[in-house]
């Protein structure tokens, strides 16, 4: 925890994330050109005013530093930055004006009493709010316009002659740069990068290439495992990889009697760690953009691995941008809705009311933006240039679409929950919720098919998995309907299979929720296990078991279009933590939480998962389960019985006969 | 005229002006600190997409250059910038994506057929509009993120020992930097700047100071006439002033038998030229901000001097910012309204429908913003944080204020005129106009006082000049009421005098309009003549005849707070052109125009003033007036008679007996 009186860099709240989000979304690179994201992107404010009143017992002095131009002002008198300012005892009004045309305006005040700690207001000359800050920028030498990565030097695990050049393998995925330690050649070389050896060896089609490299070349940050340098021999070259990362603490562990599962866990952790920087990225090679849909899944994985609240909030603030909404998030209607839903989940995870107060006005304006495109039945429709995505899958998108309505319904729910916490009137959302829920069931639930249909307007009564999955996940169906969905949709091979890993995530989630952990266990072993068999060091954007050879790297019509380290590939972390270990908060910030393990698939297992300010450890050894939580408020549910767990106490249960008995 | 197929830099329309406007408003400097403007300021978009379809007779090639990152795309295939791209004959879709996190994203295409000329669309991923460009950025080497000033080296007219140092006088106002040609001293020096010698000699209180200057120091752009270097002798130093400017063509000339008037004209031209850069600045030393009220007056002066349409549009676009309105212009409600009125005037001056089409949506949204703060009588009121300025003068600001209503009425009129031209429905404005006009007369016109009162709500029936002046200027009063206003207000010494030069401008304008040219002639001779007598080389922000010594430099409680080169000081140019020469457009772009000279004050005079694509020359010699227009469409009105003037023909009139006779 950072103390309130700790000096830190301050800025207009949200601006750091918006500015860095812009830079992040501009960092995509492909075959010698840059590829800035193709949607309208906000930037931070360019001039900001900070204000604070002090009632001083004694005179004091301070020095204001800033990134940008401007001045400090005490009781109306102006001073340049960097100058020691003396302040008399008594009441003082201190203001700091900072402008920065090239980046984030920020300030840092050195002083004993007057300093840039908690208590400053920041204004964009329209709204005055508590100033923004980040735990990553606490000292004067940390410019919040720069990202300070920790680095790790990685040596090659193999340097081999190949195709008339040198192929270097670092044995793991690197997201960083390189340090050339030896380059014995007179002419500059071309360094080809690859997530796979096939990509690095393809001089034409590899994504990244450093041309005309010489000994002191330091290329930009890139993702790779392999380097290939044509027309060179292993003796001529020695290159270290410099992996760059923002340190995150892994708060979870998993070890079982199933070696494949253990490997899947480890690779999931590696994958997710790589994709977690200032923000949740979709993948480290491609796109490196902040996608709201991908981020949504990452928030859940984070909850069971790092339990890092800051990366969640940074990602949410970057995605949402400034107050004025000009376009849906990443242009996608469902991504806007998922963002709202995610805020509620973050609140349940963190219990952070301060953040909710900061973000609620932006939830509200986004909800207004969404409500403006609903019809007389309360159904949301797409407007020109809106992308009604849901999934790449074939869907009957004639008229309004069921899956969007289910999401919207959940978003109203999120508004009601979050609005109530911050003391806002949520009556409008309740009323909209009621109408939409009724109409969703009336128009989209097909009793005969026992499932939600995509479109009621087309007359086709076409069923896909998507709306049904969301309805299960968000608890919009009773047990009877849930059973029907399970039978008629999720376990029905005649319903088109989910083909994207993005939606596979939601599908596994729903299957687990409906008690199909055994099925999901098998899917994890098969699907993720399939990648392990292919010697994956990170999990891919997509895995198609039928593909062989270099075909596995192809995606979007590009021979190396597939990202081999993709955040959503790490979903086993969430599935294991949420359903196999069975941990979830039942009140905000895990004041109370449930542990409902489903460990039948494991004979032996030892795993720890984070909860807010604590952790829960489960050890299973055949018929014995040992449970320990470092935090008060946990309830263990085992075979229908509930046990309240005291903090830091070890409880042992017998699992024989599917019955549990408290032996402790 | 720039040909349509001339290659040029392209950007999202308005963004160049918004970006440079931001930089301009951040350029203020005062006593070693920077002073960015204190309102919310927009920046340009950070990623932009350009698009154009070509149907090519033959294959061709082109090279895309950009300020920023991104790529070019032909029929879906992407290429890096700077690479020669070949394009087959037939239909081709060319797109260019440019992102720039530190400034204006812009592109320039070299090519025979495919090039960055007129015809490209630019998109911010929400709106697609014809791309923006400027005649100042036509060649590849001109980065539209930089301003390329022409320079003029100015040598000192005197270098004198003074107060133990060297005082250098350049004999004129400089807006630029310096070149140190000789500095024979071992230790760095302090260079103090002054618009006046008093300011330069005041080491403590001068606005700008270059500390620790050495021989190769090149200070930032500043305004000065004098430099003072303490502890140095004239033998030790030689410094040239490097004046920086954006060339503007003076299209007017004036010479009369009154030497003082001639001097006032020349100093007005000098003053206005100095304050006209990329934008109209209020002053060159202080504030250097783009103020809508100051700019409003500059548009009119420009019309009679440079007739430069580009500086008008650049200033208007910079002031208005991006689509979303968060605050009134410079925080001032009347400044927003004046901006709308100015657009109509610009259209009357230029006849430029293209610009009107570009700007109309931004007029409309600003008008919506204004209308949202009107009451049930149609009166506009100030909201929290809105600045109801009008003038620094004492006014009865209880409730809604008369002057604001008169401005709003004129703004409705501007919306009706401009909206009709671009084919928009303006019925709402007509309706609002009718209501407001009626209520203005009912509530604010005081028949007994024969004048508009400030406030009808206070019950004080207090009369100031302001609303009355605006009502005259905008033709909202009939002859009877106008006469009353002249007698009861303008020529009534009991009504508080206008004290600010800003409002003096409107007052002279109204007096002239009511035929008081004789009075105004005397005011010009006295007020501006007073500054001439004080050896002014440019006209000041304010002149108070009673002040003597260094007191003349004081303003806003600061000993050198007064700007000695202030745009509005140049208003004699407008008054002479508009009323004495009497030239004004009667249809857009001077398709028809009026020449209604009021030259009784001059015995001899020769003057030329611009009209759109032409000029009008008047020569008076005692009783003879010679008139010549280079453009068709002029009508001369002399003593109640009208004469249509053919182009390029000289007409001579006898002025004897106040009657005119066409002798040509």
Automatic annotation (TrEMBL), chains A, B:
Which Pfam families does the entry link to?
Bac_rhamnosid-like_N, Bac_rhamnosid6H
User: Alpha-L-rhamnosidase six-hairpin glycosidase domain location, by residue?
Assistant: 251-578
**UniProt xrefs under Gene3D superfamilies:** 1.50.10.10, Galactose-binding domain-like, Maltose phosphorylase, domain 3
Q: Which residues belong to any copy of the Alpha-rhamnosidase-like N-terminal domain?
A: 48-229
Q: Which PANTHER family match?
A: ALPHA-L-RHAMNOSIDASE SIX-HAIRPIN GLYCOSIDASE DOMAIN-CONTAINING PROTEIN (PTHR34987:SF6), C, PUTATIVE (AFU_ORTHOLOGUE AFUA_3G02880)-RELATED (PTHR34987)
What protein name does the entry list? Alpha-rhamnosidase
Q: What is the lineage of its organism?
A: Bacteria, Bacillati, Bacillota, Bacilli, Lactobacillales
